[in-house]
Amino acid sequence: MPYQELFDETLDINSSENYELAVQISPASIAFCVLDSLRNKYILLRSFETDNDNFSASEINEIMQKDDFLKCRYKKVNFIVPTEKSTLVPIQLYDPAKKDEYLNLNHLRENNSMVFANKIANPESYNVFEVSKSVYDAITALYPNITPIHPLKPLLNHIFRAGNSFKDDYIHLHVEKDYFNFIILNSNNLKFCNSFNYRNINEILYYILNVLKNFGINQETTIHLSGLVEKYDDLTSVFYAYIRRLKFSEPSGNFTFSYVFNESVLSRYLNLFNLPNCV
């Protein structure tokens, strides 16, 4: 099982009640980070990736129950669940009793799943999304009554903050293992927001070029990147043949990072690190 750990030398497992924990569980990856709330500084990132297509329920439970930092008591805990099965509902139309219906209109539900909703500040809406019950049970066994957060909440918060100074289009691509989010702001108003499943990087490029064409956006416009995309990887190499202005996004807010964190990590876990900005 591939494993990564970055930690600051000031990290103290016995001081966890002064720390905030953020956990992200996706089908193929489990990651968490620790924020020292006394200094507003991120001091730990630990991640696990499966050798198979997806983690089994037993593998998720084993990691959650055996990891020394996940078993600690924290000042605050947030839980983020990447999934393409989500739907934005304008706040004026939202009825909490109908959240299952909203999701069923656009997505085929998995067996034994649960539906949650996050309130979004910009645009004013609720994001309704699906969470596997086995994943929810694994996290609530350690942190009862925790409410899952969809990554679109911190992502939209980041994009509206970053796009505030843009008079023209602000474009963002966030890539996960099986799907990606593509978002366009214009004059800080949401112009386009959707997620697409993909099987290869050519499909990502195809979808994006078509969206840009349909909106009449020049391919010289900068696209901001985050998630499972790195400098000089296959995806960026293909993109540069058509879209030359690519910029990797990094989290920003009332927090800092230990020197052990690099640009690649900050961009990869943009949504996880940005959670304090929107909760």
Structure description:
The protein is an alpha/beta fold. Helices cover 24% and strands 32% of the residues. The chain has a domain at 154-248: Protein of unknown function DUF3822, C-terminal domain (Nucleotidyltransferase, domain 5, 2-Layer Sandwich), CATH 3.30.420.260. It has 8 helices and 14 strands. Strands 1, 2, 3, 4, 5 and 14 form a 6-stranded mixed sheet that branches. A 5-stranded mixed sheet has the order 11-10-9-12-13, with helices on both faces. Helix 1 (57-66) packs parallel to helix 3. It is globular, with a radius of gyration of 19 Å. The relative contact order is 0.15.
Question: Which terms would index this structure?
Answer:
279 residues; globular; single chain; Nucleotidyltransferase, domain 5; 14 strands; alpha/beta
Q: Helix and strand layout, with pairings?
A:
Elements (H helix, E strand, L loop, with lengths): L2 E5 L11 E8 L2 E8 L4 E9 L7 H10 L9 E5 L5 E5 L8 H8 L6 E8 L4 E8 H8 L11 H12 L5 E7 L3 E8 L2 E9 L3 H14 L8 E5 L6 H6 L6 E3 L7 E2 L5 H6 L1 H4 L6
Parallel strand pairs: 2-5, 4-14, 9-12, 12-13
Antiparallel strand pairs: 1-4, 2-3, 3-4, 6-8, 7-8, 9-10, 10-11
Q: How would you classify the helix and strand content by structural class?
A: alpha/beta
Low-pLDDT runs: none
Label the overall shape. globular
CATH level-two architecture of the domain at 154-248: 2-Layer Sandwich
CATH fold title of the domain at 154-248: Nucleotidyltransferase, domain 5
Oligomer: single chain
- Give the N-terminus to C-terminus distance in angstroms: 31 Å
Rg of Cα set: 19 Å
